[in-house]
Design brief:
Involved in the maturation of [NiFe] hydrogenases. Required for nickel insertion into the metal center of the hydrogenase. GO terms for molecular function: metallochaperone activity; nickel cation binding; zinc ion binding. Belongs to the HypA/HybF family. It comes from Blastochloris viridis (Rhodopseudomonas viridis). 24% of the residues are buried. The protein has two helices and six strands. Helix 1 crosses helix 2. With 113 residues, the chain is α+β, with helices and mostly antiparallel strands. Helix 2 links the parallel strand 1 and strand 2. The protein has a domain of 79 residues: hypothetical protein PF0899 fold (2-Layer Sandwich), CATH 3.30.2320.50. The chain is elongated, with a radius of gyration of 17 Å.
């Protein structure tokens, strides 16, 4: 379950931001998680409740926004939807697609007080 380590990193990032920006409590954290990133949002929610206890993120709302897979097809010369990593272009069927979205994990927003 790598979600535990990922969630620890998110909470550490929020604590670093609290020290550098001077806030004492995070009220909400919005995470973007790519659909092709092999991260289970329910597991992140579960881990967040346990890991955030006693930190500036304790009691914060964790909102997870899923980001669809997307890539650039070198043969078609356009952006296409991707259903899987290293998958074929849905238009031409070739595998010359460079993934441009769908594997991210980042804090998009942080609401603090």
């Amino acid at each position: 379950m790598h979600e535990m380590a990922l969630t620890e990193s998110v909470v550490a990032l929020v604590e670093d931001a609290a020290r550098s920006e001077g806030f004492t409590r995070a009220k909400a954290i919005v995470l973007e998680i790519g659909m092709l990133g092999h991260v289970e949002p329910a597991a992140m929610q579960f881990c967040f409740e346990a890991i955030s206890r006693g930190t500036v993120a304790d009691g914060a709302r964790l909102e997870i926004v899923r980001v669809a897979g997307q890539g650039w097809c070198l043969d078609c010369g356009k952006t296409v939807a991707l259903a899987e990593r290293f998958g074929p272009c849905p238009d031409c069927g070739r595998h010359h697609v460079q993934m441009t979205a769908g594997d991210e994990l980042r804090v998009r927003e942080l609401e603090v007080e």
